[in-house]
Amino acid sequence: MFATSNYQKELTMRVWIAMIMMGLTGLAQAAIKTEQIDYKSADGTKLVGYYAYDDAVKGPRPGVLVVHEWWGLNDYAKRRARDLAALGYSAMAIDMYGEGKNTEHPKDAMAFMQAALKDSDAADKRFDAGLDAARRGEPLLGVVSFHGALVTNTPAKPGIKVPMLVEHGAKDSMVTAENVAAFKKEMDDAKADYKFVSIDGAKHGFTNPDADRLSHGDHGGPDIGYDKAADQSSWSDMQVFFKKIFG
């Protein structure tokens, strides 16, 4: 169980995908290449990004930022970056905790998160991604949320232009019906360009094949679960959305 004050912040680190534009030149042979990209947060913390791209794609191509689940920058987040690269995008899985930390234990994940949140100003800058970036009107082409948090401390203001696709599990016990209703009202009041997809039978974490194991581990875990059909349908929705926003 998580304390309510930490619970909503923890959920903000579920998987989000935010789109930016990056101009990169490919090489001749087709292969998915990966690189470690070191960078720093506003508070000076060393962050370790995982960058993936297809070196056969020539000329500029859309860029995608992948924001990991609360477990940290693990193999799942990195695989999603490679999956996106295989679709022709330049993808970078970013690091929210620093030093590429990741874990499979809820207590460790909570400790990582709490440590990162000690400096509230720096934490706001580091964790302000996904739907919150869209709410602020950051210059993104679009945002996709997979089983993400819908709560926020900074509600969208009328006139936001960033298109949003929200893929939500109808059986997600970690995001309440009240959270969903409040999110939809917030978006409607802001006249936002968003599509909300509720997937029958899907739990929180439905895109992660490790979710069942993480939920039922010896140490106990959150109420999450993998759903192959939901994973595939939401990924397909994302591709349609990308074609629309990227052209």
From TrEMBL:
<dbReference type="Pfam" id="PF01738">
    <property type="entry name" value="DLH"/>
</dbReference>
<dbReference type="InterPro" id="IPR029058">
    <property type="entry name" value="AB_hydrolase_fold"/>
</dbReference>
<keyword id="KW-0378">Hydrolase</keyword>
<dbReference type="InterPro" id="IPR050261">
    <property type="entry name" value="FrsA_esterase"/>
</dbReference>
<dbReference type="GO" id="GO:0016787">
    <property type="term" value="F:hydrolase activity"/>
</dbReference>
<dbReference type="InterPro" id="IPR002925">
    <property type="entry name" value="Dienelactn_hydro"/>
</dbReference>
<feature type="domain" description="Dienelactone hydrolase">
    <location>
        <begin position="133"/>
        <end position="245"/>
    </location>
</feature>
<protein>
    <submittedName>
        <fullName>Dienelactone hydrolase-related enzyme</fullName>
    </submittedName>
</protein>
